[in-house]
Amino acid sequence: QVQLVESGGGLVQPGGSLRLSCAASAFTLDYYAIGWFRQAPGKEREGVSCISSSVGIPYYADSVKGRFTISRDNAKNTVYLQMNSLKPEDTAVYYCAAVWDWGPPSAVVETMCPRGVGDYWGQGTQVTVSS
Known about the structure:
With 131 residues, the chain is mainly β. It is built from 1 helix and 11 strands, in the order E-E-E-E-E-E-E-E-E-H-E-E.
């Protein structure tokens, strides 16, 4: 069964850090762009960061630039989101998604993140930033 499983969420104080993981099972992520999305209560889903399959070109939403870093380890079939300098407004359920890497890497991530495109989605992990 094709599956994406997120982990690493939790409660952290403002200014703290978390690293989220997105692990795939029953398929290889090698040919997929991966994205992290989040949704806070009462708000629309937001594309946080995406990464292309081959050369690993990243995309970041303006709200997280300079604080979040996306990376992938294809050998482990896992994508990570390192989140530093967390703010209360980062509180949300974070989801990862995978989309077949259909074209030029920059075009794929610049489409995937803003439009919320995904072939497969995980169930999400809660991130709460609070003192």
